[in-house]
User: Fold this.
Amino acid sequence: MTYNPSPSDALERLLRYVQVDTQSDSHNEAQTPSTACQHDLARMLAGELLELGCSDAKADEHAYVTATLPASAGAEGLPALGLIAHIDTAMDAPASGVKPHIVRYEGGPLVSGIVDGGPVQTTPEQVPGLAQLVGQDIVVTDGTTLLGADDKAGVAEIMALVARLVANPELAHPALKVAFVPDEEIGHGASLLDLGAFGAEWAYTVDGESLGEFNYECFSASQATVRAHGVAVHPGMAKDVMVNAITVLREFEDLLPANERPEHTEGYEGFFHPIEVGGTVLDASCTYIIRDFDAERFSAREQLMQDAAAFLNRRHGEGTVTVEIREQYRNMAEHLRGLDFLRDNAFAAMEACGMDARAVPVRGGTDGAQLTFRGLPCPNLPTGGYNFHGVREFIPVRSLEAMVDVLEGIVARFAVPQA
Assistant:
């Protein structure tokens, strides 16, 4: 099936939005947003929504943007549908001074830019679907920063949909509740979104990757902070006295399964992932993230961390190792059972746009995971982007425009009562 996306302003919007620095900061989680710069994009989006006629559009003190697009004629009495994306970008790569540009991909490696005399490129071996993009225009970075399509592509696609619906009032849709939220990349999970005031019965986040992928399963997730407390003495007199906190952390790491790391897992396999470490002989700490799809296996992983600490405390003395576990989000599949129309409407819209619709477990989390557990059923749709969280991030222009068509098809299917 040959499919040509309808023109939209999603590209123009993406190119503007990615140039606004909105990188979040995991070291400032006590404040929302974690970085003041996120307010810049929030204010811009609220202003654009007001210009489109969403009279209640606003950006609040936490950089949450909310707005309502009233239902089309005949759909006024139907439940409202939410569309959600996040405005922050990840900390895994530089995110300030993003310089997007468009390249025509002609096969072989996709080169974003030249840095330090060498190409920053993505090969077909790294992204097997790259070969299907030959002849397409692709938005890339200059190779020094991430692009920010995660999730400004989702933002641009939702905004382009709203603009299209305003320009074409005959297009059917229920009342649409739009939300753009901060700090998703640091596990904030849209926790300050007032669901009662938001007013959606169901919602979708637009925060995924390849076209056709639909996510209603995600990891359950926790963050564990492991602290080791040592005994420091002069190394010349350390025998049988010193307890080196750094060494104890290494022992803790050795007690976790070596093959259950992100670099060795895929599909439904969970993992332990050390993400930050530091300290001295006297005090050292390591932060882990714990992930699994299965609730029992997830609980067992958390327990293994505690058991490893207990073992080392027996070896080195009580209080040598402590583990503090903070839950981040849960597998949304646990609360989406019986709501098959959320999947069916998305599949029908994607297939109508020539996509191979398929359910894919997302090896990460979205704002939808926490929102689902808070009572707003919220699976995840793709954006069409690739290589998120790095300088090789890219998104085809055709994918941007196709997702606006998909969103149009989805909202039309909610303009009738759901079974």
